[in-house]
User: What shape does this take?
Amino acid sequence: MPHSLTFTAELKNLPVLRRFVSEISSKYQARREVIDGLIQAVDESATNIIVHGYQGRPGKIEIQMTLEEDSLVVRLWDQAPLFDPTQIPPPNLALPLEERRFGGLGVHLARHFTDQMTYQVTPDGNNELTLRKKINPNNPGPG
Amino acid sequence: MEIKVTQEQGRVPVTVFHIEGDIAADTYEQLEAQAKQSIQSGASNLLLDLAKVPYVSSYGIRGISQIFSWLRDQSKGEDDAALSSGLRDGTFKSCCLKLANPSPQVLKALTTAGIDMFLEIHNDLDKAIASF
Assistant: This one.
């Protein structure tokens, strides 16, 4: 059964979100490194929705977590203007510091700490971001 | 997030921030403000003790980079051309800002973001202080 959390799109709510991801991941007995990586990916994604999506306007973010086969799956929905973060190119870390753009760093970290990040527009025209992370990365699984 | 500031004496005076709590979009401005205040009060060597920091987000990393820039602006001895070249080829490390005791996840985030390309990261606080 999925676990859900809905919160207003404000930075002050990020600690609640991080605790939620930690607690639900622990319920599924995920390893520490899996939990930590998922917290990073979800927090970075929600931060981008709050800062770049809503841009200070009032709004909500809904999150749902569940276990599907061998992966923890987190879905985030928001009603901010449509934006596909999976299209953000990775930052060029070889550039001198002054020339780096930090705007894409959150997406880079979210991508790095998950196994899959996908985006779609919901039938009612909202953003849906899905993050997947294997609950036991060393288990090759069936077959 | 709480920041306890101590003054340590290695070969040079070192200001140590013992940080407790996450450094994320909801807290990084507090770290920047504390650093700005310390730099304006004369601190020129800054060590961030991350032993009690469970999580650093991209905003926290941006804050750490900002502190590096402030300390670099203050430093008179660094050659800009040599610095840019060193940053590009990975041979430059900041003289004035260093990190200590990151957790495994924090270390992964820092290295994935490329922070270790210009900041030393130590596992021992005393050795970190002595390295300035």
